[in-house]
Automatic annotation (TrEMBL):
This is Allantoate deiminase. Zn(2+) 1 binds at residues 99, 110, 210. One of its GO terms (molecular function) is metal ion binding. Belongs to the peptidase M20 family. It comes from the Bacteria. Its cofactor is Zn(2+). CDD domains: M20_bAS. InterPro entries: Amidase_Cbmase, Bact_exopeptidase_dim_dom, Peptidase_M20, Peptidase_M20_dimer. Binds 2 Zn(2+) ions per subunit. It comes from Edaphobacillus lindanitolerans. Keywords: Hydrolase, Metal-binding, Zinc. Residues 232-327 form the Peptidase M20 dimerisation domain. Zn(2+) 2 binds at residues 110, 145, 402. The keyword Zinc applies.
Amino acid sequence: MGKHSLKEKLLAGYDGALDKDGISGRRLAERLAALSEIGRTGDGGVNRPGFSDKEKEAKRQVMEWLEEAGFEVRHDGAGNVIGRLKGESDAPAFAAGSHVDSVPNGGNFDGPLGVLSALEVAEAWKDTGFVPQVPYEVIIFSEEEGSRFGAGILGSQAMTGDLDREKVEGLSDKEGRAFAEVVEAYGSSVDNFLGAARNLGEIGFYAEVHIEQGKLLEAADLPAGIVKGIAGPAWLDVAFHGSAGHAGNTPMAGRRDPLVAAGRFVSEVSSLPALFSETAVATVGRMNVSPNGTNVIPEQVELTVDIRDLDKETRDGLVGKVRETAERCAADCGVNVDIRLASSIDPVPVKEDVRAELREVFGEMDLNPMELMSGAGHDAMILGRHVPMAMIFVQSKDGVSHNPAEWSDLSDCLHGVHLLKKFAERQMEKIAGE
């Protein structure tokens, strides 16, 4: 962070008027700064891969804060941390949280802000003597980012029972260590990981505060917004197969060059989402060329297309169009193509009645209730398949994320905490009355 700590930078532009109803900007800044020192990198980012010692250290620090705030704290076989605060009744709990693992050299807000916002709500209740009507849980999910195994949101999927043994046993990290080996070194096992599935009837609602990771709130000069849904990603693995040859001795006529087919395909993919919806996106971010020699016509090109939309029907329609385009480009270039659906997760919309209630909460704080889509996946997407769910986005400076330059002003973060607190109290009243 240069000459100044994260805490000093956060507090430098903070609007102290938001210190009210028991919520403390300084406390949130101090805790964000404390987590930023765990796994800190040379340019002020963090490196806390899932199931690493640094991720475990960050969890232990938050567990300590949870216990000081009066929570009963435990962790399950997937390494998820669950802090539970008793309520006036034993009704299903209102839960909130996020994660503390990071991408390599990631930022200081993606994940930790959601965890610490949830904790700050409980600190505010403690300071004001408020007792929640139903139990309140703060959850830290394991391996949300997926930087360890190339498969994210594993902790939340374990909690909801959405994982199977074949999938987890087939995972390995970049060092070639099998999933089973990694989780055993972490203090668990594959059996315990899969056994982390809990009775989801214990959770009446799940909410998550998260940075936007985009520029819409900043462009609108708004501190926070309402997530109307989380786009569902589908990944297509595409492999074009041709004939290798010498770049100098093979005539242009009759070549079977898979890279030419791949190039045409990638160029066309970017124009396809607009055919289906305003929110659909398609991205080719990975490509491997073999044998990848300067003077060799390639024999094979492998790539992955990341396809997302908020609506499953339009997303799946786009997947079909991408397949069709790959087949046509291959045929036009005289090469073969193999296409495999590597992953598909359904989009998760936030229910209209939940968004309506959030709009009322925003109105109570004199905030414009802008609604926006999340293109990225979150633990809320997994919980939202099973229990009512809401997400609140906090403004991101320049839309930067997964980078040491990731930044959200403390005043915007505090708006997120106040919104979560008001919304939680409303939902708890509903849960208690059911």
